[in-house]
Write a structure and sequence with these properties.
heterodimer, A: 243 residues, alpha+beta, Alpha-Beta Plaits, four-stranded mixed sheet, three-stranded antiparallel sheet, 7 helices, 11 strands, B: 161 residues, mainly alpha, 8 helices, elongated
Chain lengths: 243, 161
């Protein structure tokens, strides 16, 4: 069979239209949300954290996190006066039910909420062999449950221990920064439930976001900066003993 | 054409390769989702699927559209910036259908101590009490109104709304 020039001219636009459809995929669920206009992060104001565990409970409710697993959790640090290199850390049930009062003999005591740091250079997405985890164009590290094999490479790769294998689905799971909420204009469940404002969702691409003023006027640190992950969960007042 | 003499087997081999490559391309077109590679080496639709999950916490702006009276009580008190669902729990279902889904009644004896029970790791300027000594087991709303907790604040009982 031979294709004439006339047929070819007819076929090419049809192929172009079909290819465009292939590229487009299905439309987004949040029509008013433009991914390229956001770059999500979180601010954790440690001097405000009271260790109530509201964030942990809210996260488990919002995201159906199974018992005993955590997308966010709160750690309590006790740094003794004489051994600041080796802090004692506890997190009973992730801090979900608060922390039992212990008699503190000197030293420093404080809470540190932890969650996925949504690294801009995330080790976990680099090791995924099937493209099941990725950094979305708005800066959130997400997992495609349908593609995840449950190989656990990413669980090992995360320097912050923020991933786990969901026992029901046998796929990797982690904080999505409440992607189903932030794309609808809501804040995350943990930020919504935090009574003291110790957690604040921040959009680094929004020039009106208070995060910019905060970063300018406070000493802000990320966890494990030497890992060069470009973590986007910023801690204000972070103690040097925090791992 | 002396060069192509007895070369039929080469063409047959090439045909097998071409058929194999074609089969690969067709299978790839069928099996790889259309949105794969849309933004990067992943399925673009995964984001829409995650984004479509249901919400449980309605958000305090939603609460305030109906409960403006509570907002009024809260605004001068210490709890002005505590969002509704920090104490009342996830209420998206109530917000969707306020008449048939009622939020549960809260027990202040359990709720208040979550934040205000004394603990050495809490910030020093945060108001905290040893509840057993402080109230002797009485529920907190005997004296404090949760929406504006300072004693003697003019707000009416938060528990009864």
């Amino acid at each position: 069979m031979s294709i004439s020039r006339r047929h070819m001219l007819l076929l090419l636009p049809a192929a172009a239209v079909a290819w465009k459809h292939v590229l487009a995929g299905t439309p987004e669920s949040s029509p008013n949300y433009t991914m390229s206009q956001h770059w999500w992060s979180m601010l954790i104001d440690l001097p405000k954290c009271i260790g109530c565990g509201n964030c942990v409970r809210a996260c488990q409710t919002e995201n159906d996190v199974p018992d005993g697993y955590f997308r966010t959790w709160v750690e309590r640090y006790h740094v003794s006066d004489y051994d600041i290199e080796n802090p004692q850390v506890d997190s009973p049930d992730g801090g979900k039910k608060g922390f039992p009062a212990v008699k503190a003999e000197g030293g420093k005591n404080f809470f540190v909420p932890k969650l996925c740091n949504h690294c801009a250079d995330s080790p976990c997405t680099q090791v995924c062999p099937v493209g099941a985890t990725f950094i979305s164009p708005d800066g959130v590290v997400l997992i495609d449950k349908k593609y995840c094999l449950g190989c656990r490479y990413c669980v090992q790769a995360c320097p912050y221990g923020c991933r786990f294998i969901n026992p029901q689905s046998s796929t990797a799971e982690k904080c999505t920064l409440c992607y189903h909420r932030i794309t609808k204009g809501l804040t995350t469940a943990c930020c919504e439930a935090c009574p003291t404002g110790a957690r604040q969702l921040a959009d680094l691409k929004n020039p009106n976001d208070p995060i910019h003023e905060f970063l300018k006027t406070h000493s802000v640190q990320v966890l494990k900066p030497y890992m060069a992950t470009h973590a986007k969960v910023f801690y204000n007042g972070l103690d040097g003993s925090v791992r | 054409m002396q060069a192509f003499k007895d070369s039929g087997h080469l063409f047959r081999l090439a045909a097998v390769f071409v058929a194999g490559i074609l089969l690969f391309l067709v299978m790839r077109g069928v099996l790889v989702p259309k949105s794969f590679g849309q933004y990067g080496h992943y399925r673009g639709n995964a984001m829409a699927e995650i984004g479509a999950l249901p919400i449980r916490f309605a958000g305090h702006e939603t609460c305030e559209t109906c409960h403006a009276d509570v907002l009024d009580k809260k605004k001068d008190g210490k709890h002005a910036h505590v969002s509704c669902e920090a104490c009342h729990g996830p209420q998206a279902k109530h917000a969707d259908d306020p008449s048939s889904v009622q939020p549960p009644k809260l027990d202040t004896a359990v709720l208040c101590v979550r934040c205000h029970e004394a603990n050495a790791a809490k910030p020093k300027n945060f108001p905290q009490v040893a509840s057993a000594d402080h109230s002797g087991g009485l529920p907190c709303d005997t004296c404090h109104q949760p929406h504006s907790p300072a004693i003697g604040s003019p707000a009416v009982s938060g528990g009864k709304k």
